[in-house]
Amino acid sequence: MIRLDAPIWKKLSSAGNDADRWLRELMEGKGDLRESIEVVAEDLSHQLSWYSATAYALPHLAALCPGLSKEDKVFLIAQMGAAIAAEAVEPLELDTEAYREFREGLEGLRRETAPLLTDPEVHKQLCGEAELGTMFALGALAVVGDRKHAYDLWYLSGSTWEEGPAACECGWEDETISLIEPPEFLEPVEIGLWDRRSLEDEAVWLSGLLSLIGDEMIAPILPLAYGTGTCPECGKREPYWTWMDRFVEEC
Ligand SMILES: [Zn+2]
Question: What whole-number distance in Å separates Cα of residue 24 and Cα of residue 242?
Fold first, then answer.
């Protein structure tokens, strides 16, 4: 963990370039906790971009997390998920200070997030708050699951999860594949029921959690997101995630 008064913070970027100031207020317990979390998260996840300050902020947030109530932990993960997911599209170089900070923070947050996912009290809390629940599910996916999948699902929020992009290596691409009435070339996968305890199968726990909290936007399209596409031009079969990643990288 790099101290908040270290010179490096002057070189780190965030949307407002003052993540360290807000982080310091948060760590010192000044002001309203949730407001401070919101400001830090917005500063680090504006427009779903990656900011270099995120890597250095995470160990501080991971240190803050164990002292929070379950409700506030859920709020923190819900708010911070997009900033963490953004690393998937601009991966940090291994063996750098930024990478070590990111890993340290992520591991700390993972220890706090995994138990929340299977906690009946948390499930009960989120049942009445579908919006927070959806944000928490995506945030948890970024922390304990595949960051790229989390990023892709946030990306799809731009079409309220009704349409998704695809690109094949043969050059075929389509920006507006309907996920509500999917074309024949996109095959859904069958996602099993969640026992509310196991986190082994990402599609199962994510789908189970989203259904549990009453999400009606993302849960219905997950069988397609984890499904398989057959390119209408060249016939190559690939996971839909691969189609989407290729499109997102090219744009
Ligand atoms: Zn193709």
Answer: 39
Are residue 166 and residue 196 in the same domain, yes or no? yes
**Does residue 151 lie within any of the structural domains?**
no
- Domain assignment present for 5: no
The domain in which residue 125 lies consists of: 11-145
Ligand 1 centroid – CA 225 distance (Å) = 18
Distance 166 CA to ligand 1 centre (A): 10
- Please give the model's pTM, rounded to 2 decimal places: 0.96
200-238 tens-digit pLDDT: 999 999 999 999 999 999 999 999 999 999 999 999 999
Same domain, 177 and 137: no
Indicate the number of domains in the chain: 2
Question: Between the CA atoms of 195, 198, 201 and 204, what dihedral angle is there, to the nearest 10 degrees?
Answer: 30
Ligand 1 center–CA 243 separation, angstroms:
10
Whole-angstrom CA distances from 99 to 49, 58, 145, 182 are 17, 11, 18, 39
